[in-house]
Amino acid sequence: MTNSIFFKFFNLVQFLKDSILFVPELTLAWWDLTKRIFLSLFRYWKSKLFFDKIFFILLFLQLIFSILPWFSYEIRFFENKESISLGPKLNSVFILLSLLNFFFLGFWKSAWTRVWFFACQMVSVVFVIWGYLDPKRYFYDFVKPEEVGLGFPFYLFLGSLLGAFIFGYLTFKREDEVLGRI
User: Are residues 55 and 38 in the same domain?
Assistant: First the structure.
């Protein structure tokens, strides 16, 4: 019995020693991988057209603003007033559409991505308008609409949505002009 405990302890010490010796090597490998990824992203960024860079940034901002809470309301507990922020009920739809647009259009060019982009932007606009007109149905359902205020991220999301739409159109138009010259 003591032999097996001693053997397990010896194996544990050997494992810890090997693990500690492996840390510098693993750190160098991760550093090299991270450096390669960022350098390839930088080269990719430098190869983009001006409108495409702005389009990429707007798609990223659209993703960020879709994640943030859009609404706030105040609740009173006895003498204490507390402000609460919340996102729309359809938040997962906005996040998913923004995420897919960011990855498909930021890193992948294809004929169908244009149709995908404009369709997703239109779906987002329709849901935002419906939510604005009927907030209890699409944005929140447990609060009185009069008590809820629109937050700054809501307007930033709308701005990035509109900006991405415009710069997406300009980018696609510019790509067609460049490809037409070839």
Answer: no
103 and 156 belong to one structural domain? yes
Residue 139 CA to its chain's centroid (Å):
20
56 and 34 in a common domain? no
Question: Which residues span the domain enclosing 77?
Answer: 48-181
Q: Are residues 80 and 28 in the same domain?
A: no
What confidence tens digit (pLDDT) does each residue in 96-153 have? Answer: 888 888 887 777 777 788 888 888 888 888 888 887 787 777 677 666 666 777 788 8
Alpha helices in 48-151 (DSSP H): 50-67, 91-107, 111-133, 135-138
- Output b/e per residue, 162-182; b: 16+ Cβ within 10 A: ebbbebbbbbbebeeeeeeee
Residue 150: which CATH number?
A: 1.20.140
What's the pLDDT tens digit per position in 26-41? Answer: 889 999 999 998 898 8
Q: Total domain count for the chain?
A: 2
DSSP, collapsed to helix, strand or coil, labels residue 162 as helix
Stated pTM of the model: 0.70
Residue with tokens 């699409």: 138
